[in-house]
Write a structure and sequence with these properties.
heterotetramer, A mainly alpha (772), B mainly alpha (178), C mainly alpha (99), D mainly alpha (514), A: 772 residues, mainly alpha, two-stranded antiparallel sheet, 32 helices, B: 178 residues, Four Helix Bundle (Hemerythrin (Met), subunit A), 2 domains, 7 helices, 0% strand, globular
Chain lengths: 772, 178, 99, 514
């Protein structure tokens, strides 16, 4: 192995060259924990945490270096940048191109992994085509004749690191979330019988994801991709004593294998299309430059899309994701926030030119990616309505949010998609860990209806952080989710004044619906968990500091991270320093370097933010949240126990009288509502309010609530559990039955075997003689 | 006698005589082979096999492969047949007709054999329709065969010796009574 | 003389041998049928050798004869082994392993 | 020189003078260095046999290790030859026997497999009270056949090598003499093997008839220049079918599961890996060196065999309860992947050959390893059921990890070796996006998903389920078996993580013939 790119540039940070340490540290920790973990006082957790802390520090340093370099390169200046010359390889940059052309060019360090055959040693071996006659080392001309594939055989595969905004962003997110998950886990899985094993795989999981993030070649990407899958298999099935858990692990793995076919085929197509290269850089460059035909890119993109669908839980390959909740909650947090499921989205970003050109994203109005993303975000959101299990609500919410990211990328809103990935990581991790904390308190139940309720009094910290996470997820300004969601909606280019890469009307509608729905189902979950009366058995208690501290950190991140990408108009309006606008875009988006989409035909544009859209979308979310809130409120008012068994409207009327009686002496709010609903005797105001309530609010609540519940249930029962699972099961059982049939042919009789052998030989030869 | 047959091939009459010899031998071989696979008596079957093997040896003589013919007689008739008869006796086969020698549904076997024969026959007919054997054929000398074996085919020859040794060791282990 | 008369004889013997191995239940008779097939191949080899005036055909046939001897020896050993354990050399009864 | 020719004359000279007609016998040139691996193995095998005959019971325990040492000794000239002959093949007997990098790589694989099988067998044979010293001698004979097979470029040599590989194996399959299953395994293997030999020989006789020579290179030339004729089709296909039996390609696979299940498990490992590889070597040699110009005939045939083999093997494997039988069917499916490059070899002979050899190397390591674990597990559980693997994580975590590596590798999941094996096959299949190659790649891809189901089922048993009988006492693993597992794990992981296989599988197909 030798360094392909050894030249050291002065501007070149030590960190860029040694970024491989970041995945290597947790990988080493995995080995160490496996061998020595059991003998250590903390059963190996300390090694894992030490490794991840170091990796995190390195990742932070790398991030700051990267940001510093971007700043040095003068993000908004008109000059050319010194950054051009550095990097593992010289990066071809068109200096005549417009401003900011080279900002954020990737820094690639590659070493040869292995190679096969060089032209030189082939030439000495050349002989005649069928290999008789001249001994080896003969004439050169026969060589060319027989060894027409000599160049192809001179084949080498490189392994390397790829540092750019996108990968640095992921390095930060993965190490950050992983670190918090590690700390959280020391409490959460404390006393588990496979504690050491758990931490070992947590380390390996992190290492695999980091390895994948830093891939410089498609082959490396595949390896990382599969490694992530393997680790998730081990972690989801961590509590394998329960049959459901091991089944879920298997299901996750096998569903991913289905998508992997797409990945392998897609990558193979790209390999040949890019003149037999695995280099992501080469592939991207050729895709941008039009050296690969659009049709080829389209097929490749479709194949890769299948991989994204399975890994990132897009419809219709999402079914493994909710089942994967069987794993320990911190693992779910890691899977949903930073690793595994975002791998698909990350891969789209990494090979964005392939998708951008292949799907003709520029100037389009709908494409496969946007459609799948749209379908997923609406479908996932609907499904989240009907879950009893708090983790499943969050899981379907992840499905929905991943759909949002894919939707964004499908509409050409690269930065918006990546930004949403970034913000989502924090608040989703916060929510998952919060759910874990809740279940920790409720004796390891995740059933919101049976075992929760009213927890806000018992677990103030968890409640507060969960609320912040919910608000962020629902897109309430000024929390993180608002900014990224807003950018996605703007990116559709539909709203007046926003100029996106096309006019994606249908995806935009999907996006708006989802924005409303997200707020609604999260409100439902929050109500069921934290409001009303506690329905569990014993008194719940707040979790310990190792659980709450990560929650607080994540919640504060969920508040802050959104400000990294404020629109410039907003910044101006508030008279903030101008440099505060679009920071994330500056740091992460490789603004126009040759490896990214930039050429004329595939021009990549940014949408213009719109204040009116932000207001409307926020109003939608708040309104939807309010409706649901109102609905549960009223339900509760009728009967505090109602939430326990109610799912629809049907059970609302009968317990009315009983509810009335019970509520009399309860909360002030209940009194008010009871009065409003039942009274109607407190003057015209009350009467008017009552009328409004009865006819408008009630109708609205009824309509929205029942529609989404019915739709959600329908999709859950028939499509999710029926059609999709049914199809998967049916194809499985068909294969199985076919196997049984073929197995019957193996009768154990030699005579039959011999008949088959001679018979098949005869038939095959006859076919080839007479038919071919 | 070999020499005689081949000498006479040089004339038309000679070829006629050789042909007559051949067809008689072939007819005997085919009839004996058919009886071998259909008879109800194991001992008879082995005797029919004896006839086929002898007829094949005679065919080698007509083709001028004297050494192969001699080996055929020595190895097959002298060794393999004796081995098979031992097998018949050690497994206590009845002397006389038996009823349970064949599978039911012999037609499947017949069908496969017939279609295989048809495919082979068609291929050979298409390939060598009226190709004649060379007229100036001389017997292949044993000495030349020996030279060939000990030069070109020395590797398979040595491998064969290992094979026979291994078969010997293995067969003794497998067949002996513990 | 035609080359084909030898080749056809070989083909016929081959097919009769195939018929034998497909219909016989008795292990020894199956082994005999195998000999028939191998002899058919030998006729082919010797005939081609004579046709091409080339020694390899005969040499190949000699090798086949030797291998056939080894195969019969091994085959009989296994048949005897089965006979000892089962008191029968009916190959149709050997069907414990299947599926 | 003089002395040698004098000796030659004293033996042969007399008859030449007396007969006076035939050409004078020319003593063939023999390159002793090139022959060294085979000669060492023969010599050492003879030595072992003699030691066994003289020492009888007293030396029984050392015959196994001694045979193993023989394999390692024979490895030495393979290495020295590798160093010397990296560019020019050593051609013997007018091209009937060739030692080049292609054959040397495979010689290494066979000696490696032989050594591992000896390790696997050492406790099995002794504890089962089977004839063990003879067992090792037969293994050595069979491996000798494989060594010869790698260099054989001539029909007679290939045929004898194939028989030398098979005949000892027929007997070893029946080695557990008092077990009816083992008897039956031997009987079925022997009968089917002989039928296949008959078909192979008939095909070879027609090839000889077409070319008037037994050397593959000459046959290749004749077939290239001849018009296509039915009898050539018959000869070519029958020859291929003979090998298709050996590699257990559908529909000539029927013997494999039965024999694998009934035979002693170390021998099953030997059959599934070494013996199958020998069949592949024969198949590659004959297709590359003789049928290289007949892709329009051979490719569709191999396409059918390959597609049928991988699909049928995988589907039946789904339904197996016995782990050895499951591995048998999985091995059939793996053979399907290995056959695939031959369905598209036209124009990329060297690449196809390379892909199969790489697959063989990795397959040898991972499959031998899987069998080693099966043997170890059966020592404790006394059962061949897949369910008997349940709960292994609790009492044998190291073994579980090793088996997981093998299973993932067999399923083709990176970063195990099996991924690269499949990778090179896919690379050949998709080269140039020809319709049929792509289609076969697609079938292979779907099959690799099906395969994941049954491989992972075993992993699931080990990792996630409690031990079936609740017995969590640790397994005592003899050192020989530990060594076997360790070696195979290392090779599987090393090939997977570094991907270094191709660098030494870099042999142009064309340079291998004279």
């Amino acid at each position: 192995m030798f360094l392909l790119a050894a030249e050291e540039a002065a501007a070149h940070s030590w960190l860029y060259d040694n970024v491989w340490l970041i995945p290597a540290l947790p990988a080493a920790a995995f080995v160490l924990i496996l061998f020595f973990g059991k003998r250590l006082p903390n059963k190996g957790a300390e090694i894992g945490i030490a490794a991840i802390v170091t990796a995190f520090i390195l990742a932070v340093l790398t991030t700051f270096t990267w940001i510093g370099d971007i700043a040095d390169s003068g993000a908004h200046s008109e000059e050319a940048h010194s950054l051009v010359v550095d990097g593992g390889e010289a990066i071809p940059v068109d200096l005549t191109a417009e401003e900011g052309e080279v900002r954020g060019a990737p820094i690639i360090n590659e070493v040869e992994w292995f190679g096969i055959g060089t032209d030189a040693n082939r030439a000495t071996l050349g002989t005649e085509a069928n290999g008789h006659g001249e001994p080896a080392g003969g004439e050169g001309d026969t060589h060319a004749d027989s060894d027409g594939h000599a160049e192809k055989s001179a084949f080498s595969i490189s392994i390397g690191t790829w540092v750019d905004g996108q990968s640095v962003m992921m390095l930060f997110v993965v190490t950050f979330i992983s670190l918090l998950v590690h700390i959280y886990s020391t409490d959460y899985v404390n006393g588990d019988r496979r504690y050491t094993h758990y931490f070992a795989f947590l380390s390996l999981f992190t290492a695999s994801m980091l390895f994948m993030v830093l891939s410089s070649s498609t082959l490396q990407l595949i390896v990382g991709w599969e490694l992530v899958g393997v680790c998730s298999f081990a972690l989801i099935g961590h509590w394998w004593e329960d049959q459901a858990n091991s089944d879920a692990a298997l299901k996750a793995f096998l569903t991913n294998r289905v998508g992997d076919i797409g990945l392998l085929i897609g990558m193979t197509i790209l390999y040949f299309a890019a003149d037999q290269s695995f280099s992501i850089k080469t592939i991207n460059e050729m895709a941008v430059a039009g050296d690969i035909s659009k049709g080829t890119l389209q097929i490749a993109a479709l194949c890769l899309m299948a991989a994204v669908m399975s890994k990132s839980g897009q419809f219709i390959l999402h079914t493994w994701l909710p089942d994967a909740m069987a794993g320990p909650t911190p693992v779910s947090a890691l899977i949903h926030a930073a690793t595994m499921v975002v791998a698909g989205v990350y891969m789209i970003g990494r090979l964005y030119p392939v998708f951008f050109v292949g799907f003709g994203i520029a100037g389009g109005s709908i494409n496969v990616m946007a459609f799948i993303g749209g379908l997923t975000c609406v479908g996932g959101g609907l499904l989240a309505f009907v879950q009893r299990d708090i983790k499943k609500v969050l899981a379907y919410s992840t499905v929905s949010q991943l759909g949002y990211m894919v939707l964004a990328l499908g509409m050409g809103a690269y930065t918006a998609g990546m930004f949403h990935l970034f913000t989502h990581a924090f608040f989703k991790a916060c929510l998952f860990l919060g759910a874990g904390s809740v279940s920790h308190a409720c004796h390891h139940s995740f059933d919101m209806k049976a075992d929760m309720g009213g927890l806000r009094k018992y677990m103030p910290t968890t409640f507060a952080t969960f609320m912040i996470g919910t608000a962020a997820l629902a897109g309430i300004p000024p929390l993180a989710g608002f900014w990224s969601k807003d950018e996605i909606l703007v990116g559709a280019g539909v709203w007046p004044g926003t100029e996106g890469n096309g006019t994606y009307t249908i995806p935009f509608i999907f996006g708006m619906i989802t924005a409303a729905m997200t707020a609604a189902y999260m409100t439902r979950a929050v109500w069921l968990t934290f409001f009303g009366d506690y329905r569990g058995h014993e008194e719940p208690h707040e979790s310990g500091p190792r659980i709450t501290v990560p929650l607080v950190i994540l919640a504060s991140m969920a508040v802050v991270v959104g400000f990294f990408n404020m629109p410039s108009g907003f910044v101006k309006a508030l008279r903030l320093p101008e440099g505060w606008a679009h920071k994330f875009e500056d740091w992460v988006e490789p603004a126009g370097v040759a490896t990214f989409v930039s050429k004329e035909a595939n021009k990549f544009t940014h949408a213009k933010p719109s204040l009116s859209l932000a207001v409307v979308a926020t109003a939608l979310a708040v309104g939807a949240g309010f409706l649901v809130w109102n609905y549960y409120k009223r339900l509760y008012a009728m009967d505090p126990k109602a939430t326990e068994y109610t799912n629809g409207m049907a059970s609302r009327i009968p317990p009315l009288a009983a509810g009335h009686r019970v509520l009399e002496n309860k909360y002030y709010l209940d009194h008010l509502y009871t009065g409003v609903i039942a009274g109607g005797t407190k003057g015209p105001l009350a009467r008017a309010a009552n009328w409004t309530n009865q006819n408008i609010l009630d109708g609205l609540v009824n309509a929205v609530g029942s529609t989404s519940v019915v739709a959600g249930r329908f999709i859950y029962r028939f499509i999710d559990q029926g059609v999709v699972d049914g199809t998967v099961n049916a194809s499985g059982s068909t294969a199985s039955r076919l196997g049984q049939l073929l197995r019957g042919m193996q009768s154990g009789q030699v005579r039959q075997y011999a008949t088959l052998m001679f018979g098949a030989a005869t038939v095959l030869v006859a076919v080839f003689i007479f038919a071919v | 006698m070999t020499y005689l047959v081949l000498q006479t091939q040089l004339t038309d009459t000679g070829e006629w005589i050789a042909n007559i010899f051949f067809y008689i031998i072939a007819a005997v071989a085919i009839v004996a082979a058919l009886r071998m696979v259909t008879t109800n008596n194991v001992v008879h079957a082995s005797l029919y096999l004896l006839v086929v093997l002898s007829a094949v040896a005679a065919t080698y003589v007509i083709l001028g492969a004297e050494f192969a013919a001699a080996t055929q007689i020595l190895v097959y008739l002298g060794a393999i047949m004796v081995l098979l008869l031992f097998g018949v006796m050690l497994t206590r086969a009845k002397i006389g007709a038996e009823t349970d020698l064949d599978h039911d549904q012999k037609w499947i076997g017949a069908l496969v054999a017939a279609s295989l024969g048809a495919v082979m026959g068609y291929s050979l007919w298409e390939g060598f329709g009226d190709v004649r054997m060379p007229a100036d054929q001389v017997p292949q000398r044993t000495e030349a065969v020996a030279d060939e074996i000990f030069s070109t085919y020395i590797v398979p020859f040595e491998a064969l010796s290992v094979l026979l040794l291994a078969a010997l060791i293995g067969a003794v282990v497998v067949a002996r009574r513990d | 003389m035609f080359l084909n008369q030898f080749l056809f004889l070989a083909a016929i013997l081959f097919c009769i041998g195939v018929y034998g191995v497909l219909t016989r239940k008795n292990g020894v008779l199956v082994l005999m049928s195998i000999e028939l097939i191998l002899n058919a191949v030998n006729i082919n080899l010797v005939a081609f050798g004579a046709f091409h005036q080339h020694l390899s055909g005969q040499v190949f046939a000699l090798f086949v004869i030797a291998v056939a001897a080894a195969e019969v020896g091994v085959g009989l050993a296994i048949v005897l082994l089965i006979y000892r354990n089962r008191r029968s050399i009916n190959v149709a009864e050997a069907n414990i392993l299947k599926g | 020189m003089l002395a040698q020719s004098l000796v030659a004359q004293s033996i042969f000279g007399q008859s030449i003078v007396a007969q006076g007609a035939a050409a004078e016998f020319v003593r063939p040139h023999i390159d002793w260095h090139a022959f060294a691996p085979e000669l060492i193995l023969v010599g050492w095998g003879a030595l072992v046999t003699v030691v066994d005959l003289i020492g009888l019971e007293r030396v029984r325990r050392i015959i196994g290790p001694l045979t193993g040492i023989g394999f390692l000794l024979a490895m030495i000239p393979v290495l020295t030859l590798w160093d010397l002959d990296s560019e020019i093949p050593r051609v013997l007997f007018d091209g009937a026997y060739v030692v080049d990098n292609y054959s040397l790589v495979l010689k290494g694989v066979f000696l490696f497999s032989g050594y591992v099988v000896v390790l696997l067998a050492s406790n099995y044979m002794a504890e089962g009270d089977y004839y063990d010293s003879e067992f090792y001698q037969l293994i050595a004979a069979s491996v000798l056949g494989m060594l010869i097979m790698t260099s054989a470029r001539d029909l007679v040599t290939i045929f004898i090598a194939l028989e030398l590989v098979s005949i000892p194996a027929y007997m070893m399959a029946a080695w557990r003499k008092r077990d009816l299953k083992s008897n039956e395994a031997g009987l079925k293997y022997m009968l089917m093997g002989v039928f296949a030999s008959a078909i192979l020989l008939y095909g070879m006789s027609l090839l000889y008839g077409a070319a008037a020579d037994t050397r593959l290179s000459v046959i290749g030339e004749s077939l290239a220049s001849a018009d296509s004729a039915p009898f050539i089709t018959l000869g070519v296909l029958f020859t291929i079918i003979g090998f298709a039996f050996k590699v257990s390609a559908v529909p000539f696979h029927t013997w494999a599961p039965d024999t694998y299940e009934g035979a002693p498990t170390p021998l099953t490992a030997f059959l599934a890996v070494a013996s199958k590889a020998a069949g592949f070597v024969g198949l590659i040699s004959i297709i590359v060196f003789a049928f290289g110009d007949l892709p329009e005939l051979v490719e569709p045939f191999m396409w059918i065999l390959s597609a049928a083999t991988m699909t049928v093997g995988n589907l039946i494997a789904l339904r197996q309860d016995n782990v050895v039988r499951m591995l048998a069917y999985s091995g059939i499916a793996q053979a399907g992947y290995m056959l695939a490059p031959l369905a598209v070899y036209g124009g990329q002979l060297a690449e196809a050959q390379q892909a199969i050899v790489i697959y063989l190397v990795i397959y040898a390591a991972m499959n031998l390893g899987a069998f080693a674990v099966v043997i170890i597990a059966a020592r404790k559980t006394r059962s061949g059921d897949i369910e008997s693997f349940s709960g292994m994580l609790r009492y044998a975590p190291g073994l579980t990890a090793a088996m997981t590596v093998f299973l993932f590798s067999l399923a083709g999941i990176p970063p195990m070796g099996g991924f690269w094996a499949k990778f090179w096959v896919f690379k050949v299949l998709t080269d140039g996006w020809e319709l049929w190659g792509t289609l076969l790649a697609l079938i292979a891809a779907v099959n690799s998903v099906i395969a994941a189901f049954y491989y992972l089922n075993v992993a699931k048993q080990m990792w996630f389920l409690p031990a079936r009988d609740g017995d969590n006492s640790p397994i005592i693993i003899p050192p020989a078996l530990i060594a076997a597992v360790a070696i195979t794990v290392i090779v599987t992981l090393l090939t997977g993580v570094t991907g270094w296989v191709p660098s030494w599988a870099d042999f142009p197909a064309v340079a291998a013939a004279p």
